[in-house]
Amino acid sequence: MEKVCDAQIKGVSTGTTILAATFDGGVVIGSDSRASIGGEYVSSKTINKVIQVHDRVFCCMSGSLADAQAVTKAAKFHLALHSVQMETPPLVIAAATILKDLCYRNKEELQAGFITAGWDQKRGAQVYVVSLGGMLVSQPVTIGGSGSTYIYGYVDAKYKPDMSREECLQFAINALALAMGRDNVSGGVANLAVITESGVEHVVVPGNKLPTFHDD
Amino acid sequence: MSSIGTGYDLSASTFSPDGRVFQVEYAMKAVENSSTAIGIRCKDGIVFGVEKLVLSKLYEQGSNKRIFNIDRHVGMAVAGLLADARSLAEVAREEASNFRSNYGHDIPLKHLSDRVSMYVHAYTLYSAVRPFGCSFILGSYDKDDGPQLYMVDPSGISHGYWGCAIGKAKQAAKTEIEKLQMKEMTCRELVKEVAKIIYIVHDEVKDKAFELELSWVGEVTNGRHELVPKDLKEEAEKYAKDSLEEEDDSDEDNM
Lengths: 216, 255
Prior knowledge:
heterodimer, A: alpha+beta, 5-stranded antiparallel β-sheet, 31% helix, 31% strand, B: alpha+beta, Glutamine Phosphoribosylpyrophosphate, subunit 1, domain 1, 6 helices, 10 strands, 38% helix
């Protein structure tokens, strides 16, 4: 929950660092785990911002956590029905479009943005950004939340398409660590998920095990 | 096989004692009165052929089309009451368009076929409306799922097919279709065979002039449903007419 004046000052990306990146054969999606109030109080150190909306499709939430949770719940329901009707796992773009429609049609009431990432049979690994107002864009790598401002340089310099799984996972962990190290409203543990054709692997890196960069 | 269901056939909301809904069966009879339409699936696409009877010399050529575009990648050939078919084509178009709007990608053909079948079926439940008097064949091509062919009849049932025929000469057309090895053919080869089948099943005595409508969708059209180009169509019609003459000649030899 942000006080209105804070939100107006910061722009509406609030208290979080989220990212997703494609590699050769899959995608890594991750976030920090801090929820804050007013930029002063940490209301939760271990909140989960990486939500599974289907077997091979995940979403990262940013903005108002209440709004984001409501939207992802609705999208999960919608996607489950859609997938059963189609008798096939849903395409990642279908999941992203459902989220986009929810964000766009309710833009007056909502304050939530998402990164949707996953793997499907047709187009392989994909990452989509659904912004606050309901824009939908596909990108190979993307970062979001207040902490993302501190790592644009790192991501631009270090991301390469078609990395190996280990390289990409390390890239994501490094990026999250750097952001969490500088952004006061991002922190806690790094929650990541690696999604490939064969399955999903959850990776959790506690705060004290994150990589350090010329620190202390 | 035809029987009159006196007393139990006045509305679609009534079953007969032997468990039939006569209104739906009568709707299927309406389809059987219409001229033939066929659709065949080959290894890299779908070809539709329709025998379009020309009832008057005053008609503009190419009017009263029986093959519709439902979406870029989906075509539909119809038989039966044309006005009913046109309204269903519009329903199918809206379904395909809404799907794209809601989910961001092309509608898979099985799903479209299921959705339109449900709509057709809804009109077989109530006495306030009559069932649709048309059957139609839907076909599409997608580079991952390949070619697909589905047929929907007035009862609201849909099946997937390698080849199917609807309309007055559907039995004769089915016999001809079964002779083909469609799984090994390409679209270009199939276009000629489809034209030939339409020419074979056309009854010269009862129905006079007809126009052949040919369309295809497949790898050869990059997944877009289009009318077969004029030169290929002329080649196919020539092949069809020549094959018919050959059969006539061979008949004479046998005598």
